[in-house]
Amino acid sequence: MPSFLTALKSQVGRKILTGITGIGLIIFVILHLAGNLTLFGDYQAFNVYTYTLESLGWILYILEAGLAICFLLHAYIGISIWWNRRKNRPEGYEKYQTKGGPSHNTWASRSMALTGVVILVFLVIHLANFKFADTNMITLPNGETGRNLKAVVMESFQNPWYAFGYSFVLVLLGLHLKHGFWSAFTSLTMKHKKYSAIIYGIGIIFAILIAIGFLFIPLYIYFTGGQGALIAY
Amino acid sequence: MAEEFTINLKIWRQAGPDQPGKLVDYTLDTVNEHMSFLEMLDVLNEKILNEGGDPIEFDYDCREGICGSCDLMIDGRAHGPKAMTCSCQLHMRNYNDGDTITVEPFRARAFPVIKDLVVDRSAFDRIIEAGGYVSIKTGSAPDANSIPVDKQVADTAFDYATCIGCGACVAACPNSSASLFTGAKLAHLNRLPQGEPERKKRTVAMVEQMEEEGFGDCSNFAECEAVCPKGISISAIAEMRRNYMKAALAGDEA
Ligand code: FES
What we know:
The complex is a heterodimer of chains A (about 230) and B (about 250). Helix content of chain A is about 70%, strand content about 5%. Chain A is mostly helical and about 230 residues long. Chain B folds into two domains: about 5-115, Beta-grasp domain (Ubiquitin-like (UB roll)); about 120-250, Fumarate Reductase Iron-sulfur Protein, Chain B, domain 2 (Orthogonal Bundle), CATH 1.10.1060.10. The complex binds FE2/S2 (inorganic) cluster.
């Protein structure tokens, strides 16, 4: 019998790891969006949220380390699958198309590596621009002094490059999730005559909701010039 | 006599392994709707022979959809446009006068081209040799009835046993994965009482062999299920993953 580590390195194990890390990242994306929605709360809600998050201290570091592992492992396996794909069919077809029916073979599913890499590059820029941004300090309602990240968000998204670049990447994230959601469960061996179709359907709805949720914020700020009635600023 | 019509073909010609190949244009004006795709190729070959050319090599045996040798990538789909149909069961009535059809071999590193449209699928044989069997004598036909098998289990095992090992799953998979083939064989043998005792050993051996042969990862495209002439479900792949990880976690314990 293979050792557990050998099993994890096999084709089967790699898919299991992709599925587990994928579900971890799905949970992160949900929480991230929920956090973003505090922008629509009162004037300081977003800054209070980020302040609370940052004051979690070592708990936050552990969560961030877990998240980083999920990202890196997921990306590493995904890129190696793409690499193997090229290696395992050295001569491609002159003509190739899907047979439809039960197939989930679409541009979105075939381009998981591409959309994934774009998201990864975006992530680096995104962290530099927001998480590690230079911010002014502001007095929060509870009397503490915190970073005024809301100002960073409001200003960044009035820049068309950032607003539309961000929106474009989030559309790609939606496409990645369209296949990824269902695929993660299937990789974790949850394949069922009836339930799999339901999981696929939920995945599509989830992907659309996530994309809309993330897209709305930059586009709203851009088109209202940061003066929109929905966001107190 | 059915009316004859004309079909244009672009067929992959390759003199031998590791030789460069290319699509060659042919026109056949004596096609009729009752011909199978292979019969159409037979007629084309006769024409090529009469003109002193080298006939197109393609594989077949039964011509009734049960042997799995008629491997053709027809217009970019394994076994052509129809679901649950082998190339030999595809009839020319599915095409119209003047259509152009591209025919290529099944392509994968693990399925090297021998000549024209014929590929070497012995990698599948080696996956079977690794564990696709039952090591005990199961007796002769009447003995099969002496071990009670739940009707549902027997039916499901039979569904997976319908795999004819044609390799369409590999050909159609963007990753050239053989997971559906391997998964189907495992799902068939592992769930029957005669095969169950060797479940772990078999699963590990066949999964490892599959990887060693150079087949790719499964990304859950399910294109294999769409092209499978027997309509085998990718549930087989989920089951293979489950059994493989269970075997690794259990270690040598029975
Ligand atoms: S020739 Fe036997 S299955 Fe087509």
